[in-house]
Amino acid sequence: MVRLTNWLLQEAGTGISKTLSEILVCPLSKQTLRVCEESASLISDSIGVSFPIKDGIPCLVPTDGKILDVDDTMKDDNAAQDSASTNKE
Amino acid sequence: MSCLQLSVPPLAASRSKRATIRCASDRQELFNRIAPVYDNLNDLLSLGQHRIWKRMAVSWSGAKPGDSLLDLCCGSGDLTFLMSEKAGERGKVIGLDFSKEQLSIASSRQYMLSKGCYNNIEWVEGDALDLPFSNGYFDAITMGYGLRNVVDKRRAMQEMFRVLKPGSRVSILDFNKTVQPLTAFFQEWVIDNVVVPTATVYGLAKEYQYLKSSIDEFLTGKELEKLALDAGFSYAIHYEIGGGLMGNLVATR
Description:
- Chain A: InterPro entries: Trm112-like (IPR005651).
- Chain A: Belongs to the PREY family.
- Chain A: It holds the Pfam family Trm112p.
- Chain A: This is Protein preY, mitochondrial.
- Chain A: It comes from Hibiscus trionum.
- The complex is a heterodimer.
- Chain A is of the alpha+beta class.
- Chain A has helices at 2-12, 18-23, 70-86, and strands spanning 34-36, 41-44, 49-54, 57-58, 66-67.
- By secondary structure, chain B is of the alpha/beta class.
- Chain B has a seven-stranded mixed sheet, with helices on both faces.
- In chain B, helix 4 packs across helix 5 and helix 8 (181-201) runs antiparallel to helix 9.
- The radius of gyration of chain B is 18 Å and the shape is globular.
C-alpha cells in the first residue's frame, strides 16, 4: 500500500524522485540539470537542451534531448533565476 | 549519434545481415524487440546458470550496505535487483539502459516484487558512452552482457572510470572470447544447436544469430584487462567462469 502510494505520488509530479534529480547531470556537459514540472523534463541550461521524463523514467540518452529555442530558454531562464535565488547552495 | 547508412547489393546478403546490427540505434531496436522474452530465454539457454554468474559478478563488485551503486546496461534488472539487496535500505542503486522496453519491464518487476529493499532502485534511460552522472559518484558498478554490445568499448570504460570513486571496482560479466580452440568450438556449437533453435521458437532467430558475430568481435580476457588499464584503472583481472564460456572482468580504480 505504501509502495503504491509512493509510486502514485511520484507519478503525480514530474515522476522522478528528488534524490534522483539531484544525482543526475547532463550526459553531454556533465553540468547540473533543472527539473521542469510543467513540461515533465530535465533542463540542461549549460547547453540549452531538455530531456523528457516518461513514465517516471528520465530519458538521458543524448539523442533524446530537444534543443530549446530562444523563447523556451528565456521562459526557463526566468524560472531558473527564481529557483536559483531560493536554492542557493 | 548517427546510424551508418548501409546500401548493400543483393549478392552480399549474408554480410549485410551481419552488418545491419552494427550501429547503436539498431542494437537499441534489437533489445527493444527481445525484451518481452529476454528473461525466459536466458533461463532456458543457460539452464538457469546465468543466475549464479550474476551473483558472482555482484560479489566481485564489492557492493556493500549503504553504497551508491550503478548497474549499466541493466536490461530487465537481474543484476540491479541483486545490487539492491547488497545496498540495503541505506544504499541506492541506479539501473541504466538505453532500451525503453527493457526499462519498462524492469520497472514493472520492481513494482511486482515483494522485497521492500527494492525501493532503493531508480531506473534511468541513458547511454553507457555518455553517463549522466558526476565524477567519482559510485562505490561500485556492474555491467552484465553489456560491454560486448556498446559501439565504443574504450569510451564506455572511460566513462565507468570517471563515475567511480577512487579505490572502487567495476565488475563486467559477459561471454568469454576464448583462445582455447576446444572451448571456442563448444561455444559455437551451443549457439548453433541450442541457442538459435530455441530463439527461433520465440521468433528471434536473427537476433540471437547476432550473438556469434558479436562474440567474435569481442575482446579476449587479456585484451579486456589491457582496455581497463588503458582507461586508467590501477588493477584489472579477467576471470573465466561457466566452464570458460563466460568471463568476468574486475577492474579497480
